[in-house]
Amino acid sequence: MQVSFNVMDYLKRAAFVCGARCAITDEPGAQGSLGTISYRELLALANGMAAELDRLGVGVGERVAIVSPNAAKFLVALFGVSGSGRMLVPINYRLNAGEVDYIVQHSGASVLLIDVELEESLANINCQHKVILDGVHDADLFTSVDELPRWEPEDENFVASVNYTSGTTARPKGVRLTHRNCWLNAMAMGWHLGISDRDVYLHTLPTFHCNGWGIPYAVTAMGCHQVIIRKIDGENILARIEQYGVTLLCGAPTVVSLILQAAESRRANGREIPGKGRVRMVVAGAPPPSVVIEQVETLLGWEFIQLYGLTETSPLVAFNRAPREWDGLEPAERARLLSLAGPPGIGVALRTDDNGEVMTRSNYVFDGYWEQPKETADVVKGGWFHTGDAGVVSDAYLTIMDRKKDIIITGGENVSSIEVENCLYQHESVAEACVIGVPHDKWGETVKALVVRRRDRLVDEQVLIAFCRERLAHYKCPTSVEFRESLQRTATGKLQKYRMRKSYWDEDKPS
Q1: Which residues have CB under 8 Å from 453's CB, separation 6+?
Q2: Strand ranges (E), 95-140
Q3: Does this model's pTM top 0.85?
Q4: Is the bond preceding 315 in cis, omega lying within 30 degrees of 0?
Q5: Domain 408-505, what architecture?
Q6: CB 213 within 8 A of CB 235
Q7: pLDDT at 406 exceeding the cut of 80
Q8: Does the domain spanning 255-405 belong to CATH 3.40.50.12780?
Q9: Which residues share a beta bridge with 174?
């Protein structure tokens, strides 16, 4: 027997096995909040969303976009949209209106769900059906329906979501993740993390990031209590952990820094740091320094886990959770080992090619880029997905050496250096521009622009930064500009970004 995978399987199980159990505690006081709902209620809301899409004439295979911070309604959409045969398009709510509009139009979304806080800034985006998630205009979309005919995909490789990710081009690419990708990734993540029905999961990771790395599916399957937090603040995170008995959370190195700062403040004031011996924190985006990892495990008393992956891999590639062989290690050495990307995840084949590029193959690797066959063929070759990252594999452990794609990861957000360079080139005073990532204590790395000015043109740092901030999402914009007489290039004229980055990343250089 073979039954096609459907992400709705996870919610169906939870509602059947533990329907009365608390599923989600939404952000208190937020407009449109769903409050506290059970798994039976969560399934009814997902059914209701599917029924309303039916009524609107949104057919199987159509795209439904959502722009929202973490919210219970976002989790409803993971099941109500994808689980009923539509394709969810989660959009980074930090993007500006032009960037959101591009994704809506490129994906061909017929429905756009907009968080109430973004209503004004996204007012001019055109879409056949626009729904504001304010608890009023979305009432029909969030009406409970107890029973609904189950949608069965004819092929488990039917696309569940189209997740747009910044790459090396100026425009983001839509990553097609199938029900098979999402279903199996969630199962493997749950296995690696040892998720049980006793876990309480705090949604510190933005749900738009690769469907929350698939963890919302995994914790739903086990009937875990899920706690929503809309805006990330270190003390607020610690307070939620204390209040709800949180055992699991995820985030970028930036979130780790905020938590550690809040913990230091608590300790200085004689207040307890919650979660010791109980909390597991999964970190991805870029490995934090080993000293930070050591602080997580000693100051906080939490378990630190490292994940390496990409949106195109659902995202599981490598998973570094301390094995029993490390139990007797000194904290500093254990932290050093945890800073590695880790061994391949369950079901993942991992290797590097002759040029040191990391390649992987698994059931988690995407179905291709939306409407971009050439770009798909560029990264899926010979049955392997080429990550664009350079690394080495030693004793089964992957270490990432460099980012060939020149992606800058700042605060867990991907920034395309080419996109920022294209923006800078629009300024009349810029002759040449090179954008790189440089170290930053809080964000892991931050955006720096190296600029050659046109002759007889004078422009200062703040003018160029302001120019970019008018045209791009603020997290993509340079935080500093350095003016140079020339930029290092190869004999063929290509920018040597590795050489220009190197001096900033040398250990003896200040950040």
Answers
A1: 429, 430, 431, 459, 483
A2: 111-115, 129-133
A3: yes
A4: yes
A5: 2-Layer Sandwich (3.30)
A6: no
A7: no
A8: yes
A9: 164
